[in-house]
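User: Quick sanity check before I run a bigger batch. Here is a single chain. Can you write out its predicted 3D structure?
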Amino acid sequence: MKKAFENLDGKSFIVTDIMYNTRLVRQNLTVNFARVTPDDKTDTLFQVYLTPGLQHETHLCTGYAVASGYGLGAWTNAGLEPEQFVHISVSGYLIDAGQP
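Assistant: Done. Predicted structure follows.
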């Protein structure tokens, strides 16, 4: 899977919030959110069920660490009509990779 985001060398990215805007979606759908390894394999973190025309949010109380060289990716279920788009915004902060 191609990474939507790739972390900086020597840094860990702590994901705290994810927002989804479905105003360009006409069908209910599931979005899979995953960590992407340096060799482009995915490790699914969670799934969220979205409905058309709304904004949805995921808030992680403790955050999720994405190590240096890893990235984030998202994809939807198969069988959807074409020309539909979910806008995803991810918030968080960077720390030095050696920090816990």
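The radius of gyration is 14 Å.

User: Great, the batch can go ahead then.
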